[in-house]
Amino acid sequence: MMSEEVYFEDLDLSDDVLDALYDMRFEKCTPVQAQCIPPILEGRDVLGVAQTGTGKTAAYLLPLLTLLQRDEHPADSVNCLVIAPTRELARQIDQALQGFAYYTGVNAVAVYGGNDGARYEQERRSLQAGADIVLATPGRLITHLQLGTLDLSRTTHLVLDEADRMLDMGFADDILSIVKQMPEERQTILFSATMPPKIAELARTVMHNPVEVEIAVSKPADNIAQSVYVCRESHKQLVLNHIFQEQPPQRVILFCSSKQKVKELSIVLQRKGWNARAMHSDLEQAERDEVMQLFRTRQVDLLVATDIVARGIDIDDITMVINYDAPHDAEDYVHRIGRTARAGREGRAITLIGERDLFALRQIERILNLQIPRAELPEGVQPPQAEKEGGKHEKQGRKGRHRGGKGRRKGSGKDNAEQGKDNAEKNKDNTEQGKGTPRKHKGKHGKGKGNKEKKEDAAQPGETTAQPGEAATQSGGAATQPAEDTAKKQGKPRRKSRKRRAAKAGQPQPENGENTPS
To answer: How far is CA 145 from CA 130, 171, 288, 483, in A?
Structure first.
């Protein structure tokens, strides 16, 4: 990893991109940007392992914008395709792109999905007219490919952002079918928060001798105060009451593992007088936008959500994250609690562990290689009963005995009892092995309710515009510093872009925040 500080002007980025960065007061590269931008500018495939908040969005957008300006590309084709797993993350990338591409003249089309016929027609016309960059979620992209409104035969750049999340959501086959529509000679950039075997296999399939960049193992920031309450499942609401009595919720995200639990818990909290709103996949896009806008503008104190906001939503001043139940995937724990303690702030992450969460807790602590501090249970709250875990296995054993009992017509009672016992043991093993593993949707697009929820991941492009600092912060951009102060501290001359040369020559420049990327 590079220990020396690298500045954007040290890299071979275009003057127009540097002008946009100058307006946003971005000077220093983050480590992932310093290591990924040079090989991308050289046209190499890049495999980046970096968790959220490291600046990976700018790490691929900035060099791709430079390549699209510098090299010859057909005006009537899709030249670059960026695929993101969820509409929220895709929207975040779109906002960042608006800022970075402000002076470049590069045109982009956002394809997030949605059921509006007028929107679809607008997407169709934009795609057929050609676009430098298409930003899309897999579900809507597949729809356009199937209907013949999108041609990827001349697309020379492909970005797969948060590829591990896409595979977890069941998009593996879709990704491969999309790649088959593209030319063999292309540049492929893949970013993933983790590097499980399935990602390594995908990289071998779609990439050619990639440059590998690994920034950090998936661990939470040091300034997050983590704790767990190990209690009975039925006592979790008592623990919530205790937490909110000690610290009334302000800028708090409460994660649940199912949308049904999100709906129920948000109603319970509202009835208790807390300013809470629900965020889940059953909401229409306009409803999602409304909830997020209310939360961003502090009109809502407590956001009760599924993992739909665990990645890609960057709000810097979240004070606390509460996991009402542990995520099934231990890696998602890191992304959930990573919503707090951003931009150098302090934050708290509290996880409520019931009987069914004990295995997931062990997985989380194994990955983090630490024991999360146990918080003292409030009065009236009891720890989980050990016999409940045994009771669950006993219940599964009864199921096994029942299956054995069904065979009494074919064999003796003793044989059937032995068979039922074997089935019970097998059930127990399968339960222990299966816990904590995320379900993967393997059906085809458009089939089944789960598929609709996961693949109809749409957002309305261009409905909100990002302010300069906001777009860059949401993309995980580098820390901001005034250019003159930074140059003075370094004591060395810096290369000036056109805009900065004009500023040095004494021509009037906009104040900070005026005429900046929106």
So the answer is: 14, 15, 27, 45
Contact yes or no for 338/332 (Cβ under 8 A): no
Encoding tokens for residue 315? 């709000």
**pTM, whole model, 2 decimals?**
0.54
Per DSSP, the three-state class of 80 is: strand
Instruction: Please give the Cα distance from 211 to 45 (Å, whole number).
Output: 6
Alpha-carbon dihedral angle through residues 75, 78, 84, 90, given to the nearest 10 degrees? 40
Is residue 333 within 8 Å of 311, Cβ to Cβ? no
Residue 238 has which token pair? 């008592």
Task: List beta partners, residue 493.
Answer: none
Q: Tally Cβ neighbours within 10 Å of residue 309.
A: 24
Q: Tell me the C-alpha distance between 82 and 133, whole Å.
A: 7
Residue 370 CB contacts under 8 Å (≥ 6 apart), including other chains: none
Instruction: Give the C-alpha separation, 53 to 162, whole Å.
Output: 12
CA distances to 32, 206, 294 from 187, rounded to whole Å, are 18, 10, 40
Per residue, what are the HEC states of 90-102? HHHHHHHHHHHCC
Task: Render each residue's pLDDT in the chain as its tens digit; 518 residues.
Answer: 445 789 999 999 999 999 999 999 888 898 899 999 999 999 999 999 886 667 889 999 999 999 999 998 888 889 999 999 988 888 889 989 999 999 999 999 998 866 567 778 888 888 888 789 999 999 889 989 998 889 999 999 999 999 988 998 899 999 999 999 999 999 999 998 878 888 999 999 999 999 999 876 567 888 899 999 999 999 999 999 999 999 999 999 999 988 999 999 999 999 999 999 999 888 888 898 899 899 999 999 999 998 877 765 668 889 999 999 988 666 678 888 988 988 778 899 999 999 988 888 887 887 677 889 999 999 999 998 753 444 444 344 444 444 444 443 444 444 444 444 455 444 544 444 444 444 444 444 444 444 444 444 433 333 333 333 333 333 333 333 333 443 333 444 445 555 565 655 555 544 443 333 33
Residues 366, 383: Cα–Cα separation, whole Å: 22
What six digits make up the tokens of 258?
Answer: 């199912």
Residue indicated by tokens 């590097």: 195
Q: How far apart are CA 461 and CA 97, in angstroms?
A: 12
Can you tell me the distance from the alpha carbon of 276 to that of 346, in angstroms, rounded to the nearest whole number? 22
Which residue, 351, 354, 310, is CA-closest to 332? 310
Mapped onto helix, strand or coil, the DSSP state of residue 130 is: coil
Provide the token pair at 33.
């940007």
Return the H-helix or E-strand segment holding 304. strand 302-305
